[in-house]
Amino acid sequence: MPISRTIREQVTGQLRDEVVGGQLAPGSVLREAELAARFGVSRGPIRDAFLQLSNEGYLAYQPNRGVTVRHPPDQADREFIAALRRQIEGHVTARGVPSIDDSSLEDIRSLLVDLQIACNRGDTAAVRRCDLAFHEAILTACGGQSLIPAWKQLCSRMAFSYERLSGYKDVYTEHEKIFRDLESRDADALREGLRANII
């Protein structure tokens, strides 16, 4: 049975998807009153969403401008951020892969199916959401919960782009390989798969 989300969670999720999907362009000014009217809610959930998405790194408060959509980092910063993310995922999986259990693998397999569905639909926001859920589940299964908050900050700043790939089929194929390496407990192959995926 699906868990119903609060109004705040629904608003936050929708705004996050719109930032990721490009409907809200970098530098766009977001106004509480306009969004409250659009979503048919009070300003409270909008304010809460602004706070959460600012903490996650998607939005920024600027004096005299209010809340705006953050700009992606420049190429040099993006490469540095990607390197940090690779270090976190490589460190956690190297330590945790040998002890990963079958129940966790099944959960990750289910998220891989979700990613495949999102890729087949060509839904950018859903692909990103499923991509993050897949990687987060691997970190969790490998015992890396304490590093997930820092990891999430890095992910939000990367503003994922799949331009290096020819299409969403390639996105799924990369993640399928990561899963196969995880399933076989091949830590070296998994590290290389993650390194190739996180750029």
Automatic annotation (TrEMBL):
Residues 5-72 form the HTH gntR-type domain. InterPro entries: GntR_C, TF_FadR/GntR_C, Tscrpt_reg_HTH_GntR, WH-like_DNA-bd_sf, WH_DNA-bd_sf. It comes from the Bacteria. The gene is ydfH_2. CDD domains: WHTH_GntR (cd07377). SUPFAM superfamilies: GntR ligand-binding domain-like (SSF48008), Winged helix' DNA-binding domain (SSF46785). This is Putative HTH-type transcriptional regulator YdfH. It holds the Pfam family GntR. One of its GO terms (molecular function) is DNA binding. Keywords: DNA-binding, Transcription, Transcription regulation. It comes from Botrimarina hoheduenensis.
